[in-house]
Amino acid sequence: MSNDDELFVDDIGQELDLGGEDTDDDYAGSVVEESEEMRWLNKNVDIERRCKSVVIDSLWKDGNEWDDIEDYKKKALCERFGRDSDGSLPTALHAIAKDYYHDYHKVPQPKLIAVLKYLLEEKAKAKVVEQSILTLADSKKGSGLLILLGNEADFRQYIPDLVSDTNSNGRNFLHYILLKKKNNQYQQLKGFEGKLVIHAPKRAVVAQDEDGNTPLHYAMNYDYMSSQKSEGYYKLLHIWIQRADADRDGDPVKKAGLPNYADESPYMAWVRTREEQKLRKKKELERLAEIAAKNAESTQSREKAAPTPTMESEQKQQPQQQQTRSGDPHRARHHYNQTSQPQQQQAEYAAMQKDKKAPYAVAGSRVGRSEKPSNAPRTLRVQPPDPSGARVTSSMGPPPTPSIAKQANAFASKKGASAALSSGAKKGHGEGKSDATAEGDQSLDEGAEKMGETLRLYYLRTRPDLEARKLLYGKVASDMNIYLDLSHLKGLAADQILAFIQRLAVVSKFDDTLSYVSIPSFPFVPVKETPAPKRYTANQSSRRENAAKPPKGRQSLVPMFDKLHSLGVKKILRLQVDDTEYPAHTDEAIEKALTGSVRDPLAGDNPIRRLIDIEAWDWRKFDLCSDVIQYAAPQVEKMHLYWSGNPTVLKGWASKDSIPKFYATNENLKTVVLHADQGLEKRPRAEKLVALFVKNLLENSRSEWMNVLEARQEKMMKGKSDHKKSDGGKLDSRQPIDVDVKWNSISGLATEATNKTVASNRPDVPQQHKWVEHLENFRGALKDIHDVLARRNVTKIRRVKVAVIDDGCSLGQLNWYNDAVKVTGVSYCPPQGDENIPWYTSSGEHGTTMVNMVTRIVPWVDMFVMKLEDGVSAGGRTIYPRSAAQAIEGAISHGADIISMSWTIKHNQSNGDSPGIAELESAIQKAKRRGILLFCSASDEIDEGATGSLPYSAAKKYAFRIGAALSYGQRDAATEDHSSIDYFCPGNQVAETWNPRSDKTVQYHDGSSVATALAAGLAALIMHCAELLRADAERRRDADPKWYEILEHNCDGLRVRSNMKTAIDNIKADGAPDDPKFPPVWGIFGNAALAIGETRDADAKMKTLEEVVNQLTLGIDLKKTAVPLRKATVKGRRR
């Protein structure tokens, strides 16, 4: 019993009158013991006193063992006193963590381990999340406790819970240790910290703090990564990323890359901090360059001002200099600063400028001399180095590091160095990514660059398209192409597919890394043979020479890959080419397509002109030579081989000089997938041939790899190897090649067939709706307006942004109107297996039709194609609400002015509570709050009501509900609930725009979906007319500011729902059907088209446009303008 316990018992004994001869000793003892237990169970005694009483007093001072401590005291140490919000400590573990540095480290380690093990076991049983013990210990200098926990195997099972515990700000030990390192000049993560964090479970890695940041957000900080300089750190990040993704299918929310509350993923945090570091270094270079220029100018000025010394003056000056050196030290130092320093500084500057080798400096390199020093005052002083070795600073601030100083001089010497420094910045996070070694910019950290690229590739490999976009580019999903799926173009000619790639490149840029490229088969067009010219011998006897015959195989994919390379594509994670049609591409064509050069089979070294790196090779050509793959994809990780059944081919692939040698020289190669066909042999025999192939491939690969290891070992013994000696024990740890066999249904090579050309006659010019025809005529008149503005050098015309939410848009079927249309998109369809579904394909061409209906009215728009998930059911088309909600959210993020939704979803009790319906309603409400004009279709089923279908039911009396009209404006009887419909537009036998260059038969379309797209186009046309007038009115702004102000309000006001309704209601015509819900466009737009077309006077054309805008905006509320938040969504976002 400790002294405190004895005193406490004495006090209790006095209160109970335990002294005296008549007191029974046993009874008194029981009362005392009972009272002592009551005291320990008293909640008023804080946990710190309890813990010190047992651990410090009993175990350390009194020499007791843990097993000797009473059970009630042990249990009392496990009681919880709440969290740390009130300043108290929750448990005994926290008390030990707090005072370990001062007290508990003195306790004999075996005893302390016993205490900690007991407390941790009880904590695990309680299953509670508490204030982080590890964080508390480290903050109180208790690193010894962390070392103890990390080193002892008995504590290994408790580490995951300890690392996961969070403080009130939501940060666990991973958050803490990374932020601590950052705040302490980016110290390295090593030692006991590494032993603890290596055991961090998934819940710790994906935990979000009060800002939504996971530990990966802090770990990917570029400055922090630059400080680590350790392969172990990057391996740790790999472990965290993979651990966070473990079982992610069962936990779709918590996974690696979870964005924070500012919608910034760990990769985006890496990009941001990378650019911030580069900007800081750039500013530092500018500052140092300015200092160097000032020094050079000051030195030159003094040299010019100094008189030429004579012999007599030099003799007089020598005694003074000797006196200065032997006299007052302060005067000597002052004299040194006055005279010696400029010459010394100039010499150093000249030395650093010597031997210019790069357009801008790199750390440790020599750079060129500045050709023209800038003008600067002469007041700059830089102190010389202290002779004692101490670092001397000046009033100008701390001296720069040598590498920065050298870069500064180069920065001053080269005009445009600023551009060179920023040339490595990532454009759109996908273009122009810099390589620290390739570009020579050593201001970028090689390890940090590698880890950032690794995380980017990890997202591309493991995430569906839409999710990868958000992680790489942010909440506003970028229209950057991160994959290329051309499978929907199967059957088209090669030049048509190439034209599609070119068109897609105009619409949206390509990332330099594509997650996959899928190229379908296409018809073969043989190369025509040209006869060789006749040649004659000396005696005039002629003989026919054989012409060089063109190859019988295909060459068509060469220009396609040339185009991809010109678009900046450097890496394809998964390449799939259907080359099974006869004849296949030649080996030379395959090599040239991927490398830009051709392999010489007889040459030892085959230089590659350029390379598109392939990770997974799936070129579906039978019996393809492995040397071709090795040359075209030297770093391939997974290769697919297609076997026609020829046994010789299998023997060749398994021979030592084939795939085994490739495996030995390419350490990335892990998997070979054999797509086997029995060919002419029976299946059992073919299976035995395949089994023999697998056996030989594994044995020969192992043999070739061991030969490589022996060669490395021999070089290491001679000290000539680039491999570290420490890797010697790991050289043989490589896993054997994984061989996967798949039996195909394809029987041998495709048979030779004659390509058939389908003849088609020119389609008849379709009979258009008069309503559509008048608007198309006005579109032609607007082309004249655009020409007028171009001649006036008016280029800043705000384009109306229209989002069409449908099943995508086939770009090959889109009418571009001489490239007036600008279209991009995002797919919100979930992937099918490993294949994404791109936005530039339309499953039923419904979306393509809707986009063409909008652009035929006004092609000068920014069109956003938001592809949603749909399907076919017995009753027709099925729209999936969750996908539709995501598409609407995407349209909002892209700053759409108009959203067109030509579909309906039944909203009833059976699906009203489904998550997708709730998300869709929420997205529609959000679009309404942002002031976006919504156009949606009425149902073409007469038995449905307005309140029973989405999207209208979520924004009643706000969304424009459009019904179908017949050719003369009559309301279509099949359209339900006419009272809830805002307008009727053509929706019966509406012909597509006739394209004379297309052999496709003109299609006619029915239904309110077509009417909705035309109505959205009409609204966009009204807004575009106002924007054209506003662009031209800039030159009249100063002359008539009041008029311009009204015009500004009219243009902005048209983005308000009530004002747009007023504008559409202002469309009137004499003799029009007496239906206020059918806008007679032939009046205002038809007359204006005639007036603009009849005159050549530019001012008269613009006057007609002004009259159109004035009539449309007559009576709109000038006090109502567009919601500013919509613009801020795009222009004011964080990144």
From TrEMBL:
GO terms for molecular function: serine-type endopeptidase activity. GO terms for biological process: proteolysis. Residues 799-1024 form the Peptidase S8/S53 domain. The lineage of its organism: Eukaryota, Fungi, Dikarya, Ascomycota, Pezizomycotina. Transmembrane segments: none annotated. Residues 292-446, 533-555, 716-735 are annotated as: Disordered. Residues 337-347 have a biased composition (Polar residues). Residues 408-425 have a biased composition (Low complexity). It holds the Pfam family Peptidase_S8. This is Peptidase S8/S53 domain-containing protein.
